[in-house]
Design brief:
The chain has 23 helices and 22 strands. It is an alpha+beta fold and about 625 residues long. It has 3 domains: about 15-200, Heat Shock Protein 90 (2-Layer Sandwich); about 210-340, Ribosomal Protein S5, domain 2; about 450-615, Four Helix Bundle (Hemerythrin (Met), subunit A) (Up-down Bundle). The strands form 5 sheets. The chain has an 8-stranded mixed sheet, covered by helices on one side. The chain has a 5-stranded mixed sheet with strand order 9-10-13-11-12. It has a 4-stranded mixed sheet with strand order 19-20-22-21. A hairpin with a 2-residue loop joins β14 and β15 (about 380). α17 (about 465-475) packs across α21 (about 550-570). The structure holds adenosine-5'-triphosphate (ATP). InterPro entries: HATPase_C_sf, Hsp90_fam, Ribosomal_Su5_D2-typ_SF.
Length: about 625
């Protein structure tokens, strides 16, 4: 024997549902007003479609803890009230075809429930425009889920349309206060395409700034900037107008006047058919367009059920691409014709642009030549630098740059500092953005090759001193060479590139390692050049040093030169380097206060004489 199946219907606990909406779906009770406005606007839209030229108003009237929202819209008949108002999740707007749905703001059939977040009672009086014979109908609903429906005499409501009466729940009276209602109606509805009033005062400001006509481009720019200040609270660097007809979208992207982290998601304001949908849309633009804030109105993007964000669908993806194109177009236009403004933009946002140019080839091609870099000729765009120098030399580290920048510049070699975040990576990609450009890392050989060799007879005269220098620097893994270069004030230049340092670190490890390891490390020995101390023959101090007969003093002087050149390079010092600096400083100090004399049996008279001469 089988038990009989008894059909049941789900029971809905309205209080539980309202609690769910207010605490989990909507971010604030204020959305009740948006839902009411939206129903009024949808009803007016539906009537306008059926009856072009019909009155189209939504009027809000505040009272003592009450609010009335009156629309001149399509209205409802009694059967419609049962089917639509009293059925949660039922929407007349979803039932129609997709195309028709696009006309409306609502679609989920839960909007009216939002009113219970602030009201304990809802009374709806409606008269249908579709069926002029149908009498007015009243629907009275309480937050416990109970409701009554009755028809009213014809004169209870003469005109078609709907009035929603709200009575505040005890803790929510503030939401129905006149000032609050006006503020919210303005906030959500100021762009609505119908006449919306609160207690007789209009709250709409049509048309939006981007649809207004202005006497000229200058006046338009000023109006847009003022709008940005009002909407977002900042004076924009520039305004980019957005127009994507396919998505029924228009608006403006305002360029931020201060740098922001590219990781920070943009908070954009999106209106849907005039109604403010969200102030925090963060998926509207491609990630790379972090430097703008948008405000726009669209008729095609879909909201999520909370109606506080955009539904991630193909339309949103297409819109994102189209908006990305518009912003890229603006950048391209600046790059092609408005260098001054491009310069202003990059001065603020170059770090962000650099970070995304690494991942976005198009952005790289467009922007890289115009990005500012530190160069031996000051802050320059790579474009300008490449025009001045057939080879774009760069250093990978800031220290290398410091080491050679002044010297290289004095010899006419331009160098770009690639030591900052992303910089060398980007410089190496320059040929992609600027075909035909040669980019090369600056190495010690290039620098040395640009320094003038010294005449052989002069070099010969300094041979003993050079020999002392080489012998002194040998244990430090450094060669000594003599060149003539500018600026003459630099006595010695320490050239040491990445390869050299790597090689030296390996050699040090080899020394410290066991036999087996030193064998293996030894087999890895590279052919990288050693560090070089380039003594400047044009520098008077070097010439004087060459005349010092005291071997010990000459060696200390070479060590001091080496230490000073290291310091000038601003490179982190190895423990051995610090010890050397210490030793030479104290050695020279000691010598200065107590020069060794011939009587002590120490050589050094010549040094004495030099000091005498110097006095
Ligand atoms: N002012 C009104 N005039 C005419 N019909 C209305 C009005 N308010 C609500 N309705 C009817 O009641 C239905 C349910 O309204 P509700 O606000 O709950 O949902 P919705 O607007 O369809 O969708 P959403 O949940 O997305 O707002 C609507 O689809 C509409 O048919």
């Amino acid at each position: 024997m089988t038990a009989e199946r008894i059909p049941h219907t789900f029971q809905v606990d309205l209080r539980g549902l309202v609690d769910l909406l207010s605490h989990h779906l909507y971010s604030s009770p204020k959305v009740f007003l948006r839902e009411l406005l939206q129903n009024g606007v949808d009803a007016v839209t539906a009537r306008a479609a059926a009856e072009p030229g019909a009155t189209a108003t939504v009027r809000l009237l505040t009272g003592d803890s009450t609010l009335r929202v009156e629309d001149s819209g399509i209205g409802l008949t009694e059967p419609e009230v049962h089917a639509l108002l009293a059925t949660i999740g039922r929407s007349s707007k979803r039932d129609s075809l997709e195309a028709a749905r696009a006309e409306y703001l609502g679609q989920f059939g839960i909007g009216l429930l939002a009113c219970f977040v602030v009201a304990e009672e809802l009374r709806v009086v409606s008269r249908s425009a579709r069926d002029p014979e149908a009498p007015p109908v009243e629907w009275l609903a309480r937050d416990d889920g109970s409701y009554t429906v009755r028809t009213l005499p014809r004169d209870a409501r003469e005109e078609p349309g709907t009035t929603v009466h709200l009575t505040a729940r005890p803790g929510a009276r503030e939401w129905l206060e006149p000032a609050r209602v006006t503020e919210l109606a303005r906030h959500f509805g100021f762009l609505l395409p119908y006449d919306v009033t609160v207690d007789g005062e209009s709250v709409t400001e049509r048309p939006p700034v981007w649809e207004r006509t202005h006497p000229g481009p200058g006046a338009r720019a000023v109006a847009l900037a003022a709008h940005c200040q009002e909407t977002f609270g900042f004076a924009p660097l520039d305004s980019i107008e957005l127009d994507v007809p396919l998505a029924g979208l228009r608006g403006v992207a305002y360029v931020l006047p201060t740098a922001v982290s590219p990781a920070q998601r943009g908070a954009h304001r999106v209106h849907l058919k005039g109604m403010l949908l969200t102030e925090r849309a963060d998926e509207l633009l491609p990630d790379w367009a972090f430097f703008v804030r948008c405000v726009l109105d669209t008729d095609s993007l879909r909201p999520t059920a909370s109606r506080e964000n955009l539904y991630a669908d193909e339309t949103l993806a297409a819109v994102r691409e189209a908006l990305g194109d518009a912003i890229r177009g603006w950048l391209a236009e600046l790059a092609a014709g408005d260098r001054e403004r491009l310069g202003q933009f990059l001065a603020v946002h170059h770090l962000g642009v650099k970070s995304l140019a690494r991942h976005d080839r198009e952005m790289l091609k467009l922007m890289l030549p115009w990005l500012p870099f530190e160069t031996t000729e000051g802050q320059l765009s790579l474009e300008e630098f490449a025009r001045r120098h057939p080879v774009v030399h760069f250093t990978r580290g800031v220290e290398e740059y410091r080491q050679v920048a002044a010297i290289a510049a004095a010899q006419g070699i331009g160098v770009v500092n690639g030591g900052y975040t992303y910089d060398s990576e980007l410089i190496e990609l320059l040929p992609l953005a600027r075909p035909g450009t040669t980019v090369a890392e600056l190495d010690t050989d290039t620098v040395t090759a640009h320094l003038d060799p010294v005449e052989p007879d002069e070099e010969l005269a300094l041979a003993p001193f050079l020999a002392t220098a080489r012998a002194t620097l040998e244990p430090l893994g450094c060669d000594a060479v003599l060149r003539a270069y500018h600026p003459v004030t630099v006595p010695a230049l320490h050239l040491d590139d990445r390869g050299t340092r790597h090689e030296r670190a390996r050699a040090e490890e080899e020394d410290a390692a066991s036999d087996l390891w030193s064998g293996i490390l030894g087999s890895l020995r590279g052919t990288a050049p050693r560090a070089r101390l380039v003594l400047n023959h044009l520098n008077p101090l070097i010439r004087r040093m060459a005349g010092v007969a005291d071997q010990k003093l000459a060696a200390t002087a070479v060590e001091a030169l080496y230490g000073q050149a290291l310091l000038m390079a601003q490179r982190p010092l190895r423990p051995a380097d610090s010890a050397l600096l210490n030793r030479t400083f104290l050695g020279l100090l000691d010598w200065a206060v107590h020069p060794p004399s011939a009587a002590d049996g120490q050589p050094g008279r010549q040094a004495d004489q030099q000091t005498e001469e110097g006095r």
